């Protein structure tokens, strides 16, 4: 209710005197006295033809829907604001994915979207209203957060009436007689927004909404309590249907207590899994449950204290009755010291995922209500294709830059060569640390560099156990044989080199065999003969040009993968580019997007914290697990964070270049492409050489 403009009418019931009690709008529907299945879904989002398909697949006698039904018609588009229209376009199941991508492109303005989108892309409700589409089973629904309040007012006034479609509201209740159970349906529509609970918007009665959105009001809650009290029957089972979740909203949980609900169904969280719980299963004790209710009460009290005087001056007597009932809900807190609250263990709750991702079926037979819960779930396939740059290292672990000895052992007679360092023309003879150890029980003791290793049975040292001595002896024998082979191969190599020097024909430059990615020598560069090895160890020849470039691994017998030749790692396919209004941490960013449930897999800051060149507004890349979670994150655009707003866009190369200010790339380090972009954003080059095309890098001072 908006106290500054006008008092809202108290309800949709006929006007009565304060002392009379108006009739409750209630209906009883007999579905099947022996056995029946009820399909419960959420967020059909205008794809109303899918209701018949879902009912047929579940063999359901009726459908209960928890909001975001798609109450829109052609003239609703003029009443929807730009932000809500973009939201509806993003999640409408009636828009093909390719067309949706075009609509949501960063350079596509709201005016362009409004000029292109028509009602057929947002909802099939006009088909239902005209009779072209008919519902095969009864559908009972509340309205959600994105609906046209004008259409709901027409249903409440009796202007709109559709076969098998029943709108549950604070003044209307239905009872389903099925499977030996009388199931009483009580519904509350709209999003729970505490600071709007006394604002009707464009609503003319107890409901509220405007610009394509709807929310719950205090008078709406009060009238639902009044309706439930009037139809109370101890032989019935009470099912509360809300759009907001009692699991998150303390006021909704308080409402369930006051209504004496046995079951509750809600939505509004848009997870890929539906949840089934009671408060006893998720709270450590009754005090934990009470704490959630107190948090909801405190949020309401802040609003109520600021508008109390204005509301008292505009409401009438009947509205005062409804307001008092709403305030009784806010004050309803379980007493820890008194008798145990029955709903603490007995009220069961389901929070549903969107209809495209899952559903709940209540199978009612012989008085028992069984539940069948189905969810699409999260997609973890992306983890199997994770690249090393996306893998977070395990704490207290080391990462080897070369293949380890177990997976890629060195070939006998060769020594691994590091690709990052040029070959020395006079390498020193060193003992290879990769000699395989025969026993994992104990590592042989290291000997002094100036003295030979002690023999297992030498004088002056204690003799080890017999089995260890045999293994040490076998190791020394294998080592000696390996050295003999290496010396023989070295002599053969020296002889071959001498023959090449003696024969000019053999000394002509010949292109060295290499992979397709290896650069070919230019005519100006003369071939450099390989340095002679004095150590007696045969080392594979590596072209010096390849080593200097650092673009590929050395040509050895190792089967290790070569380093990618691209200077920038491919971007994660589901990445958002975020501009933060103030200094923030990774935890702040994850919390802003919704915590663990948001599907954020990685957060990368482009400016290092504490750097003197850090930008006033940090730039962040946020990666998500799949396309849908990224779209949910994209909806956070222009939302508040601290004292400012956050800009969220789909990461593109254009934004990346605009942030870096130059076209050239940075030399890749261990951090991969994102690390290079982070140093560029901070004005650092991390030792990179100047651009070959003459473009100068921007400094941080600029």
TrEMBL record:
Question: Residue ranges under compositional bias (Basic and acidic residues)?
Answer: 467-503, 692-702
Q: Name one Pfam family in it.
A: DUF2433
Q: Which SMART domains match?
A: RRM (SM00360)
Q: State where composition is biased (Pro residues).
A: 520-530
- Can you tell which superkingdom this protein's organism belongs to? Eukaryota
Q: Where is the RRM domain?
A: 575-649
Q: Which GO terms describe its molecular function?
A: RNA binding
- Provide the residue span(s) of the region labelled Disordered: 1-29, 387-574, 681-702
Which regions are flagged for Low complexity bias?
1-18, 504-519
- In this chain, composition skew of type Polar residues spans 19-28, 387-417, 446-460, 553-567
Q: What Gene3D superfamilies is this protein classified in?
A: 3.30.70.330
- Show the PANTHER family listed in the entry: DUF2433 DOMAIN-CONTAINING PROTEIN, GLUTAMINASE A-RELATED
Please identify the protein, giving its name as recorded: RRM domain-containing protein
Q: Which organism is it from?
A: Suillus subaureus
């Amino acid at each position: 209710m908006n106290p500054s403009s006008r008092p809202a009418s108290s309800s949709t019931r006929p006007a009565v005197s304060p002392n009379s009690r108006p009739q409750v709008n209630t209906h009883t529907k007999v579905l099947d006295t022996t056995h029946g299945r009820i399909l419960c879904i959420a967020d059909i989002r205008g794809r109303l033809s899918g209701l018949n398909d879902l009912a047929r697949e579940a063999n359901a006698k009726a459908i209960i829907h928890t909001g975001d039904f798609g109450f829109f018609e052609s003239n609703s588009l003029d009443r929807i604001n730009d932000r809500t229209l973009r939201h509806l376009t993003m999640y409408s199941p009636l828009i093909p994915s390719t067309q949706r991508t075009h609509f949501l492109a960063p350079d596509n303005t709201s005016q362009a979207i409004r000029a292109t989108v028509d009602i057929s892309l947002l909802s099939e409700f006009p088909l239902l209203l005209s009779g072209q589409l008919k519902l095969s089973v009864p559908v009972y629904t509340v309205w959600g957060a994105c609906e046209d309040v004008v259409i709901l007012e027409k249903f409440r006034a009796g202007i709109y009436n559709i076969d098998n479609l029943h709108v549950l509201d604070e003044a209307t209740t239905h009872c389903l007689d099925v499977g030996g159970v009388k199931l009483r349906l009580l519904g509350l529509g709209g999003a729970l927004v505490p600071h709007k609970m006394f604002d009707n918007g464009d609503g003319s009665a107890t409901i509220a909404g405007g610009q394509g959105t709807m929310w719950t009001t205090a008078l709406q809650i009060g009238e639902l309590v009044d309706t439930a009290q009037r139809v109370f029957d101890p032989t019935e089972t009470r099912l509360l249907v809300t759009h907001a979740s009692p699991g998150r909203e303390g006021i909704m949980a308080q409402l369930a207590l006051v209504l004496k609900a046995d079951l509750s169904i809600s939505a509004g969280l848009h997870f890929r899994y539906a949840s089934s719980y009671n408060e006893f299963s998720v709270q450590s004790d009754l005090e934990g449950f009470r704490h959630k209710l107190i948090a909801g009460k405190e949020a309401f009290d802040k609003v109520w204290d600021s508008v109390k005087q204005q509301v008292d001056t505009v409401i009438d007597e009947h509205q005062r009755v409804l307001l008092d009932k709403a305030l009784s809900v806010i004050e309803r807190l379980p007493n820890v010291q008194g008798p145990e609250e029955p709903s603490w263990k007995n009220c069961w709750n389901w929070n549903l995922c969107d209809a495209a991702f899952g559903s709940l079926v209540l199978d009612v037979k012989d008085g028992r209500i069984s539940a069948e819960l189905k969810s699409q779930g999260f997609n973890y396939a992306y983890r199997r294709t994770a690249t090393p740059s996306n893998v977070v290292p395990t704490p207290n672990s080391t990462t080897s830059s070369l293949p380890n000895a177990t997976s890629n052992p060195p070939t006998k007679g060769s020594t691994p060569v590091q690709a990052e360092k040029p070959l020395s023309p006079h390498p020193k003879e060193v003992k290879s640390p990769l000699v395989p150890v025969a026993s994992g029980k104990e590592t042989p003791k290291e000997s002094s560099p100036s003295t030979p290793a002690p023999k297992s049975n030498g004088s002056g040292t204690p003799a080890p156990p017999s089995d260890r001595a045999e293994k040490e002896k076998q190791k020394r024998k294998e080592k000696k044989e390996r050295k003999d082979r290496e010396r023989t191969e070295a002599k053969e190599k020296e002889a071959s080199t001498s023959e090449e020097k003696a024969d000019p024909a053999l000394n002509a430059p010949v292109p060295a065999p290499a992979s397709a990615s290896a650069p070919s020598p230019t005519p100006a560069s003369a071939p450099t003969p390989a340095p002679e090895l004095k150590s007696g160890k045969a080392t594979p020849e590596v072209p010096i040009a390849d080593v200097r470039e650092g673009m590929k691994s050395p040509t050895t017998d190792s089967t290790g993968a070569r380093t990618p030749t691209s200077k920038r790692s491919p971007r994660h396919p589901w990445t958002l580019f975020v501009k933060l209004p103030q200094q923030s941490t990774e935890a702040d960013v994850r919390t802003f997007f919704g915590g663990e449930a948001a599907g954020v897999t990685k957060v990368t800051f482009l400016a290092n914290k504490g750097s003197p060149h850090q930008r006033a507004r940090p730039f962040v890349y946020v990666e998500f697990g799949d396309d849908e979670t990224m779209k949910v994150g994209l909806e956070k655009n222009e939302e508040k964070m601290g004292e400012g707003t956050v800009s969220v866009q789909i990461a593109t190369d254009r934004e990346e270049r605009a942030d870096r200010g130059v076209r050239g790339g940075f030399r890749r380090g261990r951090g991969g492409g994102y690390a290079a972009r982070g140093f560029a954003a901070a004005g650092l080059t991390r030792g990179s050489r100047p651009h070959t095309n003459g473009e100068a890098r921007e400094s941080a001072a600029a």
